[in-house]
Amino acid sequence: MASVSRGLDRIEVTFDDPSLVADAGLIVPATLMVRLGLEELVNATVKLVGRVGGARPGRKVLTLVATILAGGSHIDHSDRLRAGATHRVLPFRVMAPSTLGTFLRSFTFGHIRQLDAVIAEAIRRAWSLGAGPGRSPMTIDMDSTICGVYGKAKQGAAYGYTRILGYHPLLATWAASGEVLHARMRKGSSQRGHKRFVSELVARVRRAGAGGPLVVRADAGFFSYALIDTLTRLEVAWSITVQIGSHIRGCIEAIDESAWEAIVYPDGGAAQVAETTYVTGAKSGQRHLRLVVRRTRLTDPAQQAFWPDWRHHAFVTDLDMPTIDVDKFHRDHARVELAIRDLKEGAGLEHCPSGRFFANAAWLGCAVLAHNLLRWTARLGHLHHDDHLTVARTMRSRLVALPGRLVNRSGRLVLRLPDRWPWATSFTVALDRIRALPLLT
Question: What's this model's pTM, rounded to 2 decimal places?
Fold first, then answer.
């Protein structure tokens, strides 16, 4: 047996230190929770009076949020917050998993809307501290995703166009930060609710303090004249992908070859863009929409023999930008997938823990709060430049999931963290900056 193995075998393992803190870095986002007044906000907004498990909703929501911040994806994972002295770096009483399960099951549609109001107010407060866009232009990406489930015990789960059993939530994210501005849980087969969703979204960001021009980008699943009319009425610019049916294809084929302009494209492919006008509707209600088309094809001779034709991607927009620039801007809509992936893989939405539809909708709300808290912590704590992507797993490994020991030094509590921690300076700077923020109520 190797000497290293014999040395490891001699190490005795015990679970008996009440002063250890499992996820000591939670103190940073927890401090931001205090500055934003989140527990009082939830208690004042979410009214579960008379519902079993509905008392003191603030501490229960924040227990779920802290669990997700620490990497939890199931209700039972909240037990890690009760290990050692972890609860002492949190500004609320940590609740047991059984209590949290009862709490989530007490939600109805109206209570979900109240939790939505909490998220909206939390965004307003965070932006008032400096995390928002101010009067700068703001790009919002809208998309939907599939939260897959298994078995038939999930209320509201259904097969949609993807043929995957699950839920189909709507999401809107701020392109610059990746934070979720609005989210709505829907049944798995639902493709509705876009018009009302975007009306609530625009009202929310305006109330939160977004005073500059707004642009909404979306894929073909959102295209409708009702949505375009709503955005136009709200004075929001739009860029929306369209499916290429016979009418759109006719417009594309009518574009003169001299109108196509080459653009930079990844190795092994060529791409060109052009634009035309998409005319639809009868004379009394005729519409003229700016249609921008990108066509791509492979340039490698071996591959081109199998796929010699151009493939087309088209979108309509009211943006006043050159063709090449507006195409580049629209392609950047793909970054919404990074935010969705981070919400699902890094902020608890990889799993819908309950068999009740509204319980899972409440879990989505808690996941959105956790997702946004990480981004507000990074932005307000100056953990990286604003143009850098915030990734939950990176934030967790550098900031949250580090061991600590809570000790008493002459009546003063000290959180002792590992020596030679590579990101110790960023940690202390972020904590000091967040502690310097005013308390909001």
Answer: 0.93
